[in-house]
Amino acid sequence: MDPRLTTAAVVVFGIPAILVGYIIVAEQILKLVPKRLQGRLRPVLWILPAFMFLVAFLIYPTINTIILSFQDRASREFVGLDNYEYFFTNNNTLSALKNNGLWLVFFTGFVVGLGLLIAVLVDRVRYESVAKSVIFVPLAISFVAAGVIWSFMYAYQTPPAPQTGSLNAVVTAVGLQPIPWTVNNATNNFALIFVGVWMWTGFAMVILSAGLKGISTELLEAARVDGANELQVFRRIILPLLMPTIFVVATTMVITALKAFDIVYVMTGGNFGTDVIGTLWYQERFVNRDAGAASAVAVLLILTIIPVMVLNIRRFQAQEATR
Hints:
Number of domains: 2
Distance between the termini: 58 Å
Oligomer: single chain
Radius of gyration: 25 Å
Structural class: mainly alpha
CATH architecture of the largest domain: Orthogonal Bundle
């Protein structure tokens, strides 16, 4: 029998069976405990499996990665801060950091901006559900598939060969020279970012549209009756009331931008100056076989995400406190 089938069977049937068995055993143990203690112990026993999974698959790997980041490429000797010094003094790593900055600014800005614009516009049409479905479809495609699709869209052939890529076919049809979208340093990063924007705009639109639906129509109509035009209604009423939702979407997109990997790996492999932190980590760990440098990259990525998460949690707590 194929070992992959055995593994799949264990995952699909074995793990749920173990969890059910654990619940049954836990309840039997609780029957042996005085009733006054059962109420306190039951939550602990029910949460324990999730906590163990958290320790095994999140806390332990994180701690181990931090330790590895202070060791050499073979994880045998401690080298102090050498791996971090390498990160901030190497041109390739600084280039990847700069590219992540481009993703952070342009990807987040365009996804949130277009999502908000589309959410406001489709809220006014009769075919709203159809329009939202069409715009949301790209998110249902895997990142790898999206990268393959847009690789064909950006395909470039050296003139005078005919252009097979859709974009260059349009460019040459209007009399311009074809553009090597993913090779040219002036366009490749933005071409990759556009693919991410194409995929995630639907997500932002759906979330922001849900927030828009929560705004009282009576409030909007009252503003219009008082003489406010549509731009004023948007700036003075809709935008302030949507700010908590916009903030949540923006922080989600910031984290997504920092973790960018699939699109870059599929379309360029990090070549031609398109490396980001994710592809840099892959290069160090699986190509250069440098566990220390790769771990340092992972730790720095974690450190960049933590402030965003803390800010998001604090805003959520402040919002809950006002309710």
